[in-house]
Amino acid sequence: MTQKRILLCSYPFAPAGGPQSLRWLNLVKILSERGWQVDVLAAKPSIHDSFYDESLLKELPSDVTVFRTYPGIYYSLKHIKKRPVRGFSKATVEWFPFGVQRGNKLVKSQKYDAIISSGLPFVAHLVGYFLKRKGQLTWIADYGDPFGFNPMTSKVKRLIGRSIEQHILKKVDGVVVPLEEMRKQFLEFYPFLKKALTKEIGNGIPDMFQQIKPAHSSGKFVISYVGSFYKGDREPTQFFEALNMLKGNQKIMDNIEVIFAGNTEQRYIDYAHQLKINDLIQFLGRISYEKSVSILKGSSVILFIGSTWDYYHFQYKTAEYAASGRPIMAIRQSPTDCGIDFIEKHKLGLVVSNDKEEMARAIDRLFTLWNNNALESSFGRFPKETFYWQTRAKEWEEFLLSIMSRD
User: Partner of 321 at 20 to 30 A CA spacing, among 160, 171, 371, 375?
Assistant: First the structure.
């Protein structure tokens, strides 16, 4: 195949973390190996950004060029010093003029065969739209979450977002989403989209996942959670109360250890102190990818907290949780949580509601299985071979070539 050149527009990119950034870091590595020339247009992250992870730079191929632009004054002021941030700033749109300006220069000076925009945040799709108009290039929008019908935003934002999204999607050449259910939603909300020009390509796990060794065992029953908490959505309060209910079970109290790795707001740490369960818990803060996987693999049980929002969503970390080979205690808060459905389908653990009594019973049951050396044999195994990024990159390559051939 003659080498093809693509421009990826992604607000966050290594060393910035986040689901879409990690998705494309892995895809870029493999596409580069398969002969694609990839340039990346991204916002320049602050070292004080809670998503900043310098170790990600080690994974970036030497032949991939990243053009980093000014993210905007609000972002710059917000990250003068380090502090926890919930998700992406609402002001990511301020990157738009800087992304378009630099992108226009790149499109003018380089011979790109296609543009790919990656969102969230949605601003990357706006940049992709204007670059498409400038260079008349093939443009594919890769979605982590929808914009116009995302229930995590207000009704007003959804109304405005749907109008904007509808307009730009009329100019897109292809749309990629991580779930078949979400693809059906896009086709329903935007009937002008052609089914053949949409594709489901999920997230994956990197080859290095297999080589990462489990964290050193403490000899205790370890429950771990790797990720962030979100007020009003994924919160640990009921889980804390479940632990509090188990104080009367001395055997569990003497042998349990809970690890939280990720951005944790002070109010949750304070609540653990208030319940006097803080001695059972380690709050590690944000850690490297390798260390987080090591913790997952070394755990007895992994805690998965589903979203409260009733819409189709598959948390990025679901596949990695499953691939760790450890049983999962999954908390369902919505009937349409694809991550929970996946865990149930493959019998990877126990699914409970966000109820402290139900969770306490589940912890007791899992502890008993662990204590009787029957934990691993009680649950199914995840077919991780089909979820490696090599497979996902091949799917992307095939879709790219099929869209480009239509021009």
Answer: 371
